[in-house]
Design brief:
about 475 residues; alpha+beta; eight-stranded mixed β-sheet; about 25% strand
Length: about 475
């Protein structure tokens, strides 16, 4: 792994394969007894003012905002499995205000609108937290700083350059040397860090469950186990069909993100990439003291292929990222979620980062799909005379951005020319991904080039080409 071998004090002796094998193959966030009872599936036909396809963060936020803004609106949510059971409850719970996968990515793709995007992102973030409080959603929200650690000289130099850009645009940040970085959390791999204020950590499953309850409290109707198989439209209504029923709606929002169904158009712009996660057992008081981390910040490292990690309420460490995997032809399913090689790689990196935690075991291992686009940020589309809107592709930063995406989708189907619906990120889609086999080849080539850049610090010809045409693929 790039950079870590230069600074390790000793190599870990824990056998990662044994620890991974002993971990429960289940999502920690949902492996608890307080999940809501699934709603009944749709049977028969009914009508609605708004039908939302997909009961994850985007769909639930869309339903909640639609009902909150217009209490008389008849809103129905159709979920293929159980609301919140997809990517919305499989992530790390990092809630970042950015709508553009970070300031630098936004600056690269939308330089003329970057400050508008930053302002809209911050307003969306604040409104999200206000809604969580107003609807009494118990999502264990913690407002913290975000810290990105440099673990190689290449990453240190990259952070210095990033800090200069942030300073030029008045973006708040702090660049830390090695001593200050290791005062945040103790790891022999840290050479420096870049900190940013103002993110939140949440329990993603309880956030989804709380949104579900809020939607129902305002009169929204939810059907679980109701996969949409077909969408047809005439001049008056859009028919959203499932195996056992249909909703005839005035307006429709498709919020299936990485699943990119049932609309083939979405699959051109959004690809699913599986991100793998480990959860440790709770740390003892002595282990917590050995690690430090008293500020409970949201942590990551600064490579293209990076880890993200955080503490839970009961002092477990969630450790994810680095080894994201794309499967042929947008492949998805249970067979993509338990990849032994990826989890063992994560386990090795964990003990390289925190060798003082030798002997700590992992309680859970899982994976979840990230819907990504060629610009690493959400993309939008409309169909059927703009009576249907779709949105997806948050590229791993969707906990907060999904609320913004939901709001934009509502503006689009209602024909509202608002500030958020008129920005370039909404009006112009990113470059589509090529069909197979070129899709897999391009993604593999880009991942390899990003890993090489982590090792050498040099931008190779493939990445330079992607920069010139304004596309790429985030590991």
């Amino acid at each position: 792994r790039g950079g870590h071998a230069q600074v390790l004090r000793h190599s870990p002796v824990t056998d990662p394969s044994a620890l991974v094998a002993a971990a429960k193959p289940a999502v920690f966030w949902t492996d608890r007894g307080d999940a809501p009872t699934p709603a009944a599936p749709l049977h028969g036909s009914s009508s609605a003012d708004l039908c939302i396809v997909g009961g994850g963060f985007t769909g639930l936020w869309a339903a909640l905002q639609a009902l909150d803004d217009n209490p008389g609106r008849r809103v129905v949510v159709l979920e293929a499995a159980v609301c919140g059971s997809g990517a919305s409850s499989r992530n790390g719970g990092f809630c970042d205000p950015s709508l553009t996968h970070g300031f630098l990515n936004g600056l690269m793709h939308w330089p003329d609108e970057i400050h508008t995007l930053e302002r809209l992102g911050r307003q969306n973030f604040d409104d999200m937290l206000e809604s969580i409080e107003r609807f009494a959603i118990q999502a264990d929200v913690q407002r913290v700083d975000e810290v990105s650690f440099a673990t190689s000289e290449t990453q240190l130099q990259r952070q210095r350059e990033e800090a200069e850009t942030l300073s030029a645009h008045g973006v708040e940040h702090t660049l830390l040397d090695q001593v200050a970085a290791q005062a945040i959390a103790r790891s022999p791999t840290y050479l420096g860090a870049l900190t940013s204020p103002g993110i939140a950590l949440v329990d993603p499953a309880r956030l989804a469950w709380g949104l579900r309850r809020a939607v129902q409290s305002l009169g929204g109707v939810i059907y679980d186990q109701s996969r949409v198989t077909q969408i047809d439209a005439d001049e008056e209504r859009i028919r959203v069909g499932t195996e056992h029923g249909a909703i005839h709606a005035q307006r429709v929002i498709v919020a299936t993100n990485a699943w990119a169904e049932p609309l083939r158009q979405m699959r051109r712009y959004i690809v699913p990439v599986y991100d793998h996660v480990l959860m440790t057992e709770p740390l003892s008081a002595e282990q917590m003291a050995d690690v430090g981390w008293s500020g409970r910040e949201g942590l990551a490292d600064a490579g293209n292929q990076f880890h993200y990690y955080r503490l839970t309420a009961d002092d477990r460490i969630l450790w994810g990222g680095y080894d994201a995997n794309y499967h042929w032809n947008n492949g998805m399913g249970a067979e993509c979620e338990q990849r032994t090689e990826s989890h063992e790689l994560l386990a090795r990196h964990f003990f390289e980062t925190f060798p003082q935690l030798e002997g700590l075991r992992f309680s859970h291992r899982w994976a979840g799909p990230i819907g990504t686009t060629s610009k690493f940020a959400a993309t939008f589309g409309t169909m059927h005379g703009e009576r249907l809107a779709w949105v997806g592709g948050y590229t791993g930063l969707g906990v907060a951005a999904s609320r913004f995406g939901a709001g934009v989708a509502l503006d689009l189907i209602d024909g509202l020319a608002t500030e958020r619906s008129m920005i370039e990120m909404v009006r112009r889609r990113p470059m589509p991904f090529p069909p197979e086999p070129l899709r897999s080849l391009a993604i593999r080539t880009t991942r390899s080039a990003l890993a090489k850049q982590d090792e050498t610090g040099k931008t190779g010809p493939w990445l330079k080409l992607l920069d010139r045409i304004g596309v790429g693929f985030d590991s």
